[in-house]
Structures are given as structure tokens and as C-alpha cells.
Design brief:
globular, Serine Threonine Protein Phosphatase 5, Tetratricopeptide repeat, mainly alpha, 195 residues
């Protein structure tokens, strides 16, 4: 039951159906609180945070993720902490290279953006590298591919094509080993665009 709920949350998040993702994550958190299953709270908060950030609630999402990451470290949930590093890398990568948010979102988040925009690419790279380091330590090879792909895309957007090529090739090898056909196709397309 929990896995199906979580899968639905991620599907909504990755398909840009942010309100639906937030609703299911919030509902899951209420369930955890009501039924005393707090061990899942930080897990759901890890994914609620980028949902809120994507909806334009950057400060709120960043605060939730910061608090959750402290809990993950305290409880030695290294796997989820590594995923949170990847999520932070994605957030900063979007700030550095993604489309600029609308004027109203920029105004609402002026403090957050002012503190982070000039260092966003550097922070993204640091978080991606930390995620890679942690995922290697815990042997979570299947999660490494998307991180390498994101790091490669960041480098490509910053015109660091040789580094991008190295990261994309690493991602391709992992996707091939894991049988991740959709990711493999995407990574091959990115590699081809670097030629």
C-alpha cells in the first residue's frame, strides 16, 4: 500500500502534476502522524520539499528539506540522505540553468533567489558529487545513473563538454548494466548532442 502511494506521488511529481503530488504527499504525512509511523515521515518530506519548491514555495520547501536532512543524518538513513543530495543538486541545477521562474514567483522568493542564484551551479555540482559519493559507499548503483546524467546535463549547459561527456558515459554504462532502457535512450541522445 505504501509503495503504491509513493509511486503515485513520484509519478505526479515527475509529470509536473504538482498539486496532486503535494496532496498525496501531505495525505501520506498525515497518515504517518495519525498512525504513529514516523519512520516514514522524513522519507515523504524529502519528496514533498522539491514539490513545494517547484510550485514556487522555495523557502518553505528548502526549510522542510533542511530539517528533514538533519533527521535523516541523526537516524542514519544514508540512502534517503543520498537521494536528498541528488534532489538538492536538481534544485540548484534548475536555478542555474532552468527556465527563469515567473515574475510573481521571483518576487515571492526574492530572498531565497538572492542568496542562491549566483552560486547555484557550484552548489548543484557539490550536491551531485556528494550524492555520488554516498551512493557508491552504500552500494546503491541503480541510483547512480540518474545522478551522473544530471551532472552531465549541468556540465553541458555550462559548456563544459568534456566533463559532460565523461559523466554521460558513466551514466550510460550504469543504465546499460541496470537495464534502464528509457534512461539509456535519454543519455545516448545527450551524448550525441555533445558531438
Amino acid at each position: 500500500m505504501k509503495f503504491c502511494c509513493f509511486s503515485a506521488c513520484l509519478a505526479y511529481l515527475f509529470n509536473g502534476r504538482l498539486q496532486e503530488a503535494e496532496n498525496v504527499f501531505q495525505s501520506s504525512l498525515c497518515f504517518c502522524d495519525k498512525h504513529g509511523v514516523g519512520q516514514f515521515t522524513s522519507f515523504y518530506e524529502t519528496f514533498l520539499a522539491p514539490t513545494l519548491i517547484a510550485k514556487g514555495h522555495m523557502k518553505q520547501g528548502a526549510e522542510i528539506l533542511g530539517k528533514t536532512r538533519k533527521t535523516l543524518l541523526r537516524n542514519q538513513r544514508r540512502h534517503v540522505f543520498a537521494i536528498s543530495e541528488y534532489i538538492l543538486g536538481e534544485v540548484y541545477s534548475q536555478i542555474a540553468t532552468g527556465p527563469r521562474p515567473s515574475f510573481s514567483i521571483m518576487v515571492k522568493n526574492i530572498g531565497f533567489l538572492a542568496r542562491n542564484i549566483s552560486f547555484a551551479a557550484k552548489k548543484a555540482e557539490e550536491h551531485f558529487n556528494k550524492a555520488i559519493e554516498l551512493l557508491k559507499e552504500i552500494g546503491a548503483k541503480g541510483f547512480l545513473g540518474p545522478v551522473y546524467l544530471s551532472l552531465g546535463l549541468l556540465c553541458k549547459n555550462r559548456k563544459k563538454n568534456e566533463k559532460a561527456r565523461q559523466y554521460i558515459l558513466e551514466a550510460i554504462n550504469i543504465f546499460r548494466d541496470c537495464g534502464a532502457g528509457g534512461y539509456l535512450k535519454q543519455a545516448n541522445e545527450v551524448l550525441e548532442s555533445l558531438r
